[in-house]
Write a structure and sequence with these properties.
The chain has an eight-stranded parallel β-sheet with strand order 4-13-12-11-10-7-6-5. About 45% of the residues lie in helices and about 15% in strands. The termini are far apart. The protein has a single domain, classed as Aldolase class I (TIM Barrel, Alpha-Beta Barrel), CATH 3.20.20.70. The protein is an alpha/beta fold. Its cofactor is FMN. GO terms for molecular function: FMN binding; oxidoreductase activity, acting on CH-OH group of donors. It holds the Pfam family FMN_dh. Keywords: Flavoprotein, FMN, Oxidoreductase. Belongs to the FMN-dependent alpha-hydroxy acid dehydrogenase family.
């Protein structure tokens, strides 16, 4: 005999057309393939996946890789994963202010685009696209000595952007002085002097890929190119890929770096740069407290704690872990910035809460550039801004300037 407790029968009916209309909402058709790709990117990891599909292996690995076993990069990313946020509630966070004063100028966002070499190799729009996005979002960007757009052309592409110039001091001081003069005359207000490159790091992905500048069409790269025809088409039908601030050079990346970098670089060179450059000076590549103190004594306006994105010395210190001791040492005598391993708005909030005055991103916007040119870089900024705002709201913090170490502890 059936159990009466389970004898009820569900009453069914046909749905009314008006009810179906409420739930049947197909996504609008996006005809532009770039817009369609980028609409599917909700994180920087999504942009990386798209970039990897659209870019030849050698160019992608140049961006994605690091030195030797890549432990420095891995440790940096793991450090951000070890951050534990400590939220406050009932703080009223309907409006969030993401602006931050960076070296005396207010930026709408507390992060900047780091200097990156060979940028047009990633995608032909290159540094011009990055500068236009920086201008649109009222944030800084830095042009590398090894950039593929000239100092003057970048200034023309984004005349109202806040532009910085990154310098390697060569054995020939005359060449460096010329670059500094050109940058200052073109409206660049800050110089980033990179000091962690006496020699090139051993970037094994580049070695194994046989990466050359400009890319060589070998049998291997031809086969890879068949899988990425749009990239090769853009390379071959736009202005030649070369270093805008260097004389013509053909060869492997390691050959170029060893020719360019100066193992004799010392504090006398820093003093010369400080005397030559009239604007703000940032020392990029500081990796211990003693060096941070010393470069400030020699005139640095900001210290950038950086292990070059893990691309120089493997097993180097992790920048975010150096923050507390560095801040204690130099107090308020200079700003302290960080880079390396930052791939989300939460990472940016964590670095700022730990005490960084500003954050630089590199791989994140290059993934966007490879995924969709200028629109991809803008998508990167949109993702990071959205993640930052949401993280701050969940922390109970309305302003970047109100973030404190108590909001983010390292476990």
């Amino acid at each position: 005999m059936p159990d009466e407790r389970w004898s009820s029968v569900t009453q069914r009916r046909l749905p009314r057309p008006s009810e179906l209309k409420e739930i049947l909402r197909p996504k609008p058709i996006v005809l532009n393939p770039t817009d369609r790709r980028l609409a599917a990117a909700h994180t920087i990891a999504d942009l990386r996946t798209i970039a990897r599909k659209r870019t030849p292996r050698a160019a992608f690995d140049y961006t994605d890789g690091a030195a030797e076993l890549e432990d420095s990069l891995r440790r940096a990313r793991q450090a951000y994963r070890r951050v534990e946020f400590q939220p406050n509630v009932l703080r009223g966070v309907s409006d969030v202010d993401t602006s931050r004063e960076i070296l005396g100028t207010r930026s709408a966002l507390p992060f900047a685009f780091a200097p990156t070499g060979f940028t047009r190799m990633m995608q032909t729009e290159g540094e011009r696209a990055v500068a236009r996005v920086a201008q649109r979002n009222t944030m800084p960007m830095a042009l590398s000595t090894m950039g593929t757009t000239s100092i003057e052309d970048l200034a023309a592409a984004a005349p109202d952007a806040r532009k910085w110039f990154q310098l390697y001091v060569w054995r020939d001081h005359g060449a460096g002085e010329d670059l500094m003069n050109r940058a200052w005359e073109s409206g660049y207000d800050t110089l980033l002097l990179t000091v962690d490159t006496p020699v090139a790091g051993q970037r094994l992905r580049d070695v194994r890929n046989g990466l050359t500048i400009p890319p060589a069409l070998t049998l291997k790269t031809f086969a890879d190119g068949a899988m990425h025809p749009a990239w090769w088409f853009n390379l071959l039908t736009t202005e030649p890929l070369n270093f805008a601030s260097l004389n013509h050079f053909g060869g492997t990346v390691a050959d170029l770096l060893d020719k360019l970098f100066d193992p004799t670089l010392n504090f006398d060179d820093l003093d010369w740069v400080r005397q030559t450059w009239p604007g703000k000076l940032v020392i990029k590549g500081v990796q211990n407290v003693d060096d941070a103190r010393d470069v400030v004594k020699h005139g640095a306006d900001a210290v950038l704690l950086s292990n070059h994105g893990g691309r120089q010395l493997d097993r180097a210190p992790t920048p975010i872990e150096l923050l507390p001791a560095t801040l204690d040492e130099i107090q308020d005598s200079a700003e302290v910035w960080v880079d390396t391993g930052i791939l989300s708005g939460g990472d940016i909030v964590a670095a700022l809460a730990r005490g960084a005055n500003a954050v630089l991103i590199g791989r994140a916007f290059l993934y966007g550039l490879m995924a969709g040119g200028e629109r991809g870089v803008q998508r990167c900024v949109d993702i990071l801004r959205t993640e930052m705002i949401r993280t701050m709201q969940l922390l109970g913090v309305r302003r970047v300037d109100d973030l404190r170490p108590t909001h983010a502890t390292l476990r």
